[in-house]
Amino acid sequence: MVVFEQVKATFYNKYMSKAAGVEKISVGNEVEIKVDLALAHDGTGPKLLEAWEKQSEKVYDGRRVLLTVDHAFPAPTPAERSFQRRFSQFAEAQGCVLYNHGEGVLHQIVAERASLWPGMIIAGADGHVATAGAFGALAFALTPEELVPVLTSGRLKMKVPELVTIGLEGELQPEVLPRDIALYLLGKIGGDLKEKAVGLTGPLFTSLSAAACMTICNFLPEAGAVTAFVVPAGEEAGPIKHRVDVSMIEAMIAAPPQPINVKPVSELAGTKINVAIAGGCSAGRLEDMQIIANVLEEYPVHSEVTFIVTPASRAVTKAMDKLGISTLIRERGAVIMPPGCGPCPGKHFGVLTEGDVAITTTIKNTPGRIGSNQADIYLASPRTVAQAAVKGMI
User: Fold this and answer.
1) H or E element, residue 38
2) Which residues contact 286 (CB under 8 A, 6 or more apart)?
3) Which residues are in the Aconitase/3-isopropylmalate dehydratase large subunit alpha/beta/alpha domain (predicted)?
4) CA–CA dist 329, 146 (Å, integer)
5) Are 165 and 157 in contact (CB under 8 A)?
6) DSSP H or E segment with residue 318
7) Burial of 152 (0-12, 13-18, 19+ CB in 10 A)
8) 8 A C-beta contact, residue 108 and residue 288
9) Please, which residues have CB within 8 angstroms of residue 77's CB and are 6 or more apart in sequence?
10) What residues are paired with 242 via a beta bridge?
11) Which burial class, exposed, middle or buried, applies to 328 when counting CB atoms under 10 A from its CB (0-12, 13-18, 19+)?
């Protein structure tokens, strides 16, 4: 008698099927999945409220809607302040959870203050909600207009994306950070991630912190990934399409004009910079701040460089203060911003002008992202950014 081994459903298929209320799903299926948490912020908020005013329904459950004011806080213009007041009124009227007192950037607040669990479904009006994939959440980015029906129904209509599983093994070299892994993946296999759900697995994840996992999941949408998540221990990851030995990765950098234009830092060594930016949703956690402080402890910021540091949250700032990191960073010549996005979206303080060359830990380097479209932006790890800040060059 021939015995056939039963194929175990992948973590991704299992929880997508569960959310859709069906026994199984297939790639390309039209499904309607239950959303456990909906997200938005002041960056996409104006379009969200504009779309909201065109319908008359109520938010399905305000307790499951988390909003932040993080792109421009405190308000740099009267228009931003006016919107923030309307956003607050919307949240109060609909019973939504709003953080608008400088608590921090959306994705960090979700990690610190929301209840997250493996397989939960998140939908948000931001391109980097997949940051929550570090905790096994399946988080999908929507436009503000697409989020409105989710807010009224608690459900998301979508086509099931194909799953691409990446296996990471080996140990990182001493100067290499999780951000370098993310950059490497974009440069090497980014073309295979577009419109895919990306599952991350492998022995490396037994040694990575939650912050490190957040850094990797945060950046993969820049390759067009629909979502990215770490497959929880004990769950079935599925066939591994790409295996990566991280011990072979060196410090990486994305050169203008797009995040997938990735090269080893060594290839661009000597490129002069005059602005350095670190922090925000991509690299604003405590371990990132410690790495920056370690570099600044040895050298001060270069006299021709403006170095802007943005903690991801109030909790991170508090820990920095307690450990003396804040004082060290300031005394060595850098500027610490209020918790939030910082200059990244180009809406707040620290924007670039024509001729500026910036190295940043932010998530986009397309022309005009942080101000002038005549400025150049390089994306790198917190260590590479801090090292450039003290040397005046990559």
Assistant:
1) strand 37-41
2) 211, 316, 319, 320
3) 30-232, 262-392
4) 41
5) no
6) helix 314-323
7) middle
8) no
9) none
10) 166
11) middle
CA distance 232 to 15: 12
Q: 10 Å Cβ neighbour count for 294?
A: 14
DSSP state of 343: T
Please provide the average confidence, as pLDDT, over all residues in the chain.
96
Cα separation, 301 vs 266, whole angstroms: 21
Closest CA to 344 of 382, 371, 318: 371
Place of tokens 């939504």: 96
Domains of the chain, CATH where assigned = 32-155 (3.30.499.10), 162-250 (3.40.1060.10), 262-391 (3.30.499.10)
Per-residue DSSP letter, 272: B
**122-125 own/partner pairs: CB under 8 Å, 24+ apart:** 122/35, 122/36, 122/37, 122/38, 122/39, 123/35, 123/37, 123/38, 123/39, 123/147, 123/150, 123/156, 124/38, 124/39, 124/40, 125/39, 125/40, 125/41, 125/44, 125/47, 125/48
Nearest to 283 by CA among 186, 204, 368, 218: 218
Q: Sort 319 into a burial class: Cβ within 10 Å, 0-12 / 13-18 / 19+.
A: middle
| DSSP assigned state of 381 | -
Single pTM value for the model: 0.95
Tell me: the pLDDT tens digits for 4-62? 344 579 999 999 999 999 999 999 999 999 999 999 999 999 999 999 999 889 999 99
Is the pLDDT confidence value at 3 over 80? Answer: no
Instruction: Let me know: does 166 contact 205? Beta carbons within 8 Å.
Output: no
Amino acid, res. 339: P
- State which H helix or E strand residue 30 sits in: strand 30-34
Distance, CA of 219 to CA of 179 (rounded, Å)? 8
Distance (Å, whole) CA 373 – CA 254: 17
DSSP lists the bridge partners of residue 99 as 68
